[in-house]
Design brief:
Structural class: mainly beta
Number of domains: 1
Number of helices: 0
Order of helices and strands: EEEEEEEEE
Strand order of the largest sheet: 1-3-4-5-6-7-8-9
Length: 130
């Protein structure tokens, strides 16, 4: 069936990651229908990762003040959850290191609204230790 996967011990996990998402799809709900579009690539830093305390910091640019993230640990992945001021959610799942590429496969999802209309997106990419 495959190898048994176990999460990294907290002391083995990277404390800082640079995440880049080159592809994805975003949707908006307008006039009674969902419409899709290709979003711009995005990147950000997840830093100060503390798996034991289940906290981290999100930085959109190097040196910028970071937002608070909650961490949920899973077998072969960590989920970084951001609840933004308006109550919308962003979720980034970072999987264990791919030995072949030296990067962590990752998925980023955004769930928000714009002028009363649902807007959401999902991106695929990679995170690498910084």
């Amino acid at each position: 069936m495959g190898a048994v996967l176990t999460p990294l011990a907290a002391e083995e996990a990277p404390r800082n990651l640079v995440c880049t998402f080159e592809s994805g799809t975003s949707w908006s709900y307008e006039d009674g229908d969902f419409k899709s579009a290709t979003p711009q690539p995005l990147s950000f830093h997840i830093g100060d990762i503390d798996l034991e305390e289940q906290t981290a910091t999100l930085r959109l640019k190097p040196g910028a003040e970071g937002g608070k993230l909650s961490v949920v640990r899973a077998i072969n992945a960590n989920h970084f959850i951001e609840a933004v001021t308006e109550g919308f959610l962003n979720l980034t799942t970072v999987y264990d290191l791919d030995q072949k590429t030296g990067q962590h496969p990752a998925v980023h999802s955004r769930h928000f609204g714009l002028i009363g209309q649902p807007v959401f997106g999902q991106y695929t990419g990679f995170c690498r230790p910084e």
